[in-house]
Amino acid sequence: MNFIKTIFIILFTFLSSSAFADQHDLNSNNQTTAQSTEINNENEDIEEEVPLNDPFAGNEGTGSGSNIPEEEQENEMSLYNFKLVGLISGKDNSYISLVNSSGEVITLSLSQYLGDIKLVDLRLNEAIFEKDDKTFIIIDFNNQIRETNEY
């Protein structure tokens, strides 16, 4: 009988001590909740600053269209409307992939035309096109387009 009483007393003290521990946690949670409510109220008083430009707009919001020549602005197959996204150069064939603003991918091989310009050469990180007047347009992966007389 004493054995059962001892077990019962040990069990009772164990349960009561855990109940007090839970009470203590509840009090600290209430304090934490009160502190977080104060912090939330302080944050509501501070207005969040909005960036000047939309970070999700991509290149459309940067005004990069200002350096496009006038004759190229109206032509939808102009190189200025594309970005270089892929370049594969092999022993027999070489290809590039260009993507336009709507996400359409165009793949060209050497000597193929993109509108009025012809893909004539590839380098490690750029593609070279030849115009009808024997000048060249070079596009790289940073979407930098430059026109030169030779390459």
Question: What would you note in describing this structure?
Answer:
The chain is an alpha+beta fold and 151 residues long. The protein has a domain at 76-148: Roll (SH3 type barrels). It contains 2 helices and 8 strands, in the order H-H-E-E-E-E-E-E-E-E. The longest helix has 44 residues, at 2-45. Residues 24-29 and 61-65 have low confidence and may be disordered.
Short précis:
By secondary structure, the protein is α+β, with helices and mostly antiparallel strands. 32% of the residues lie in helices and 28% in strands.
Q: Which characteristics define this entry?
A:
3-stranded antiparallel β-sheet; 32% helix; 5-stranded antiparallel β-sheet; SH3 type barrels; alpha+beta; 2 helices; 151 residues
What topology does this entry show?
Blueprint: H1 2-45, H2 70-73, E1 82-89, E2 94-100, E3 105-109, E4 113-114, E5 117-122, E6 126-130, E7 136-140, E8 145-148
Antiparallel strand pairs: 1-2, 2-3, 4-5, 5-6, 6-7, 7-8
Share of helix, binned: 25-40%
CATH topology of the domain at 76-148: SH3 type barrels
CATH architecture of the domain at 76-148: Roll
Low-pLDDT regions = 24-29, 61-65
Q: What structural class do the secondary elements suggest?
A: alpha+beta
Mean pLDDT: 76
CATH class of the domain at 76-148: Mainly Beta
Q: Report Rg.
A: 34 Å
The largest β sheet comes out as: 5 strands, antiparallel
Distance between the termini: 103 Å
| Overall morphology | elongated
Number of strands: 8
Strand content: 25-35%
